[in-house]
Design a protein that fits this description.
Largest sheet: 7 strands, mixed
Distance between the termini: 45 Å
Oligomer: single chain
Radius of gyration: 16 Å
Number of helices: 6
Helix content: 25-40%
Structural class: alpha/beta
Strand content: 25-35%
Number of strands: 7
């Protein structure tokens, strides 16, 4: 077990989520952000340099004080106003209909009560607001799905609660969103970890 945790898992994560290969995904998604933006799971602030002029303010939500401290340091070089909130996406401490854009980048996989979190995202979005997302999740092929289902229980323990098998589009639609644009496909790496969903949704 220790060998798997210390050697195999870091290599798989490295293959599945190499930051250099994720940058084009981040750029495409963030290029459509505008107005008052809520970023769910802002983490260490990797998206902050990519926000453009249409963004007036970024609210970064994350449950980790350590990651928020890293994001605050990055925000000193940001061209947009950034506010940070330590908290959970399952209970977003913002008013209803108060943000123009919600951003999730590889976040929905690890939120424990993801449906509740998506309902909260819809609540805080303005009626004409948008959810922009890039996530990994359930693949279309049954052979890959079988591996995703087998690996997920262990992967959750080793990968910070990350699920490999969440049906991202279905979850978003079930939370009351209408998908307006979506692209799916594999990026480089092991197929169970690298099936991507990238798109835009609006409150239905």
């Amino acid at each position: 077990m220790s060998f798997f945790r210390n050697q195999v898992v870091p290599q798989l994560i490295h293959l599945a989520m190499r930051n250099r290969e994720l940058i084009p995904y981040r750029r495409r998604v963030l290029s459509n952000a505008h107005g008052r933006v809520l970023e769910i799971g802002i983490g260490s602030g990797m998206n902050l340099p990519l926000y453009g002029k249409p963004v007036q303010e970024v609210i970064g939500l994350d449950p980790s004080p350590r990651l928020l401290a890293m994001a605050r340091r990055k925000a000193t070089h940001s061209s947009v106003v950034v506010e940070f909130i330590e908290g959970s996406a399952e209970a977003i401490p913002l008013n209803q209909n108060s943000v123009d854009t919600v951003i999730t980048t590889w976040t929905l996989c690890s939120i424990p009560r993801v449906s509740l979190a998506l309902n909260e995202m819809r609540r805080v979005l303005k009626p004409d607001g948008q959810l922009l997302f890039v996530e990994h999740g359930l693949a279309p092929e049954e052979s890959v799905q079988r591996w995703q289902n087998r690996l997920t229980p262990l992967w959750k323990c080793l990968g910070g609660g990350c699920h490999l098998n969440r049906p991202i589009r279905q979850l978003i639609e079930q939370a009351g969103f209408s998908i307006r644009q979506i692209e799916t496909g594999y990026m480089k790496g092991p197929k169970p970890m690298t099936f991507m969903y990238e798109g835009r949704a609006r409150p239905a």
